[in-house]
Amino acid sequence: MLEPGRTIGILGVGQLGRMLASAAAKLGFKVAVYGPEVEKSPAGQFATIRVDGAYEDAAAVEAFARGCDVVTYEFENVPASTAAAVTKAGVELRPNARALEASQERVREKNLFRKLKIGTVDFWPIADARDLAKALPKAGPSILKTCRFGYDGKGQARLQGDEDPEAVLAELGGGPWILEAMARFEREVSLVAARSVHGEIAYFDLCENQHKHGILARSVIPAEASASVKEQAREAVRKVLEHLDYIGVLTVEFFDCDGTLLANEMAPRVHNSGHHTLEACSVSQFEQQIRAVAGWPLRDAETVRPMEMLNLIGEEIEAWDELAADPEVDLTLYGKREARPGRKMGHAVRPWRK
Amino acid sequence: MLEPGRTIGILGVGQLGRMLASAAAKLGFKVAVYGPEVEKSPAGQFATIRVDGAYEDAAAVEAFARGCDVVTYEFENVPASTAAAVTKAGVELRPNARALEASQERVREKNLFRKLKIGTVDFWPIADARDLAKALPKAGPSILKTCRFGYDGKGQARLQGDEDPEAVLAELGGGPWILEAMARFEREVSLVAARSVHGEIAYFDLCENQHKHGILARSVIPAEASASVKEQAREAVRKVLEHLDYIGVLTVEFFDCDGTLLANEMAPRVHNSGHHTLEACSVSQFEQQIRAVAGWPLRDAETVRPMEMLNLIGEEIEAWDELAADPEVDLTLYGKREARPGRKMGHAVRPWRK
């Protein structure tokens, strides 16, 4: 168990890092944050130590890691060389580099699901227009995604099956790609869970999520779900956690197709659909992550008060004063200066009644 | 309403400042902390801006305040000259200087209670041994306290009434003093409440407190109490808040003498007996304080889950690993390096069942 007073390093400077910093503060740790423009960043504003640098600068990351007792991250696009730099400094990266590799490339991610016998949609790796021309007729209505660096609906295109492969790839850019059959799902759910250094797993309740323009808009904890659906989700998450010898919080998003779950994607970190664990649960996803990476035991992640969370995207933040005045709303704002379209600026949590 | 992204200044570097910083982070503010050895202090470790300086250095405080949009404090012994320096910088101090004056000197505090017709114990201002010689026979079993700078039982002596006045004052030191008749109380309770810029008041539930060696050891929210006791506490707190045109969180501690409350002392700030509002209530005392000083509306301060809080004093912190492993315990550690005797190192909160 890492002693209070030790330093937890975080790669990444956004709102997840900010909320992780508060959780680390609660448990008596110091927090060092690494990333570009760290000083004015959401996480940097509340870090004990701020180190400005590029994620690709292995030497700088190695020096940063030497000042930490353990290192974690708040986004999955940490380059492999960066993960290696932490290890080179003699410091543990939690979750480990395998978790990063598995989740930052969509084909690898889907192959892992398949290998672990976790249901997923049909998919085709796409290296060029020839691959796409072959796959499209089989796939029919489908989604073409870049294998890397897509998030919040970016790097995606919906296809009917009759498009011109060359034109589609040129427009989307940034290959290689993956073509995914469109799931006929009723709803989307996600499961956030943590695994400790001793292999103990604590699951939050399933969340039901609604997206708008590819970005999470609303999430409810707990999702209404049958015992079978809950069990499928836990089973899938458990398999991934154990296969990767994972330490920390993992999130898997699923399509719920009439009671059968298909894994859509996973994130090796605290997740937007788990923000309301702070208000709803006996412990938050942020504290579980700090506990796990610090080698502490996890807490039970019981839902005490059902809650819904609404993301505040872009100019939706302009209603902050109305939300602040709503007696039902628990408001969290991320300290970002510019409300660019599609940018997550904060979230509002309120009690959820059926 | 102060806009998110603005800077809230805090005078004081301890655990209260640390928890206030987390609450400010949640609401999208920056936090500037001022005090001695700020860099490694509990609050400084998680502040956006850290300014090292003495509380008596009016010029430095004025410069600090110029960088803030509003200034608050986490301890009541802020010198009057320091409060004036904030005002001189053209920045609002919340709660105001009158709240500081009223609560940092025990005779003034008791006189205010008396003036507002809030029940309190009999008391005698003591300037010298002659005063004490006159008061002691009237008081009988009593407590002699320094008027300023006492906390956690420091600067106090219990008297039977037959002591030698000269010797007692020489031993206690640091006059002037106040002699307080010993209340025959059943228990101690406290009420934490906040008042907004618009005069709106939100009360937390009454807490029941147990002290050990003059230091708070345990607090339960909500205290079991009759409607009359609850009403007496609210009425007392309301009178003080309104009389002082107070903005922020105020705490009043009472002796419960068989259903009659006597005000013991007040603190113009978030309070140790309100820490478990974070786990127990729909909003924490820390968020209420940030909301109030930022000119935001307050939230309802309803108890959602009854909780007890145990302070971790001095070497009690050595059991941190057992507490971290207790599935019922919500642990908060303050990031202090040295566990000196009597020093508050953290607290443990757990569900309270009768």
UniProtKB/TrEMBL annotation, chains A, B:
State the source organism's domain of life: Bacteria
- Enzyme Commission numbers on file: 6.3.4.18
Biological or metabolic pathway of the protein: Purine metabolism; IMP biosynthesis via de novo pathway; 5-amino-1-(5-phospho-D-ribosyl)imidazole-4-carboxylate from 5-amino-1-(5-phospho-D-ribosyl)imidazole (N5-CAIR route): step 1/2
Residues binding ATP are: R106, K145, G150, Y151, D152, G153, K154, G155, Q156, E188, H211, N264, E265
Task: List UniProt keywords, sorted A-Z.
Answer: ATP-binding, Ligase, Nucleotide-binding, Purine biosynthesis
Q: Which InterPro entries match?
A: ATP-grasp, ATP-grasp_carboxylate-amine, ATP_grasp_subdomain_1, PreATP-grasp_dom_sf, PurK, PurK_C, PurT/PurK_preATP-grasp, Rudment_hybrid_motif
Q: Which PROSITE patterns match?
A: ATP_GRASP
Query: What family, per the record?
Result: Belongs to the PurK/PurT family.
The task this protein performs is described as: Catalyzes the ATP-dependent conversion of 5-aminoimidazole ribonucleotide (AIR) and HCO(3)(-) to N5-carboxyaminoimidazole ribonucleotide (N5-CAIR).
NCBIfam families membership: PRK06019.1-2 (NF004676), PRK06019.1-5 (NF004679), purK (TIGR01161)
From the Swiss-Prot or TrEMBL record, give the protein name: N5-carboxyaminoimidazole ribonucleotide synthase
